[in-house]
Amino acid sequence: MTEAAAGTARRTPGTPCWVSLMAHGLGTTEEFYADLFGWEYVPGPEELGPYVRALLDGREVAGVGQLPPDRSLPVAWTTYLATDDADATAEAVRSCGGTVAVGPLQAADAGRMAICSDPIGAVFGIWQAAAHVGTRLSGVPGTPVWNELVTQDSGVAKFYQTVFGCETQTDPASALDRVTLHVAGRPVASVHGVGRDLPHDRGAHWMTYFQVADADLAAARVVELGGRVLREPYEGTRGREATVTDPEGAVFTVVDTRGV
């Protein structure tokens, strides 16, 4: 999505529709992203435990929740892919070699969800929208602008093609092992094979890209707020970008797409 307002319509199945972070310290995490992106917060569904929805201009852009104190799970951003039937999609995930770790379960009147992983182990969510369709604002600083699966090789794109009906496209002129996923003829996400450069401490993972006005300034601000810069700002495929972490170690990318 590149339009300023993402609207209230359900996303076509296979389209990234939401990103959510589960952290150990909900309050301090809220403060970090509020300072970095200007987010405000409202409570989310009680069924998800301590959980808030982040707002920009009064519209939902992301979710932040708190991990149970007795769970030592990794802190990471999760990309949710839209579906019209969470239960059927969960079965498709299993039949294609993936895993369903949580759900499907009902999140009050917001929708139905599940947390899954693909055959390589990359975690993602599926979301069957009801009252909550997902991100309602895009194309402005502080909003998700892209989602990319970072994995050993792009062959796992076939899994998403089969489960969600995505079309795949490669750029024959590029030396990179990258496949773009298309839904209804529109690019919605990518799968980037990095081979031995895959981080051993994270394995295959979905990366969330957040739009910023200036990637260099955003990276510097991340450090001031207690986060880290994993890759200094550079000219990437989607604009000037930097890979960073929040204070708890959740990895994400900030990108300024003005020059693209």
From TrEMBL:
Gene3D superfamilies: 2,3-Dihydroxybiphenyl 1,2-Dioxygenase, domain 1. InterPro entries: Anthracycline_SecMetBiosynth, Glyas_Bleomycin-R_OHBP_Dase, Glyoxalase_6, VOC_core. Pfam families: Glyoxalase_6 (PF18029). Residues 15-129 form the VOC domain. PANTHER family: CONSERVED PROTEIN, GLYOXALASE-RELATED. This is VOC family protein.
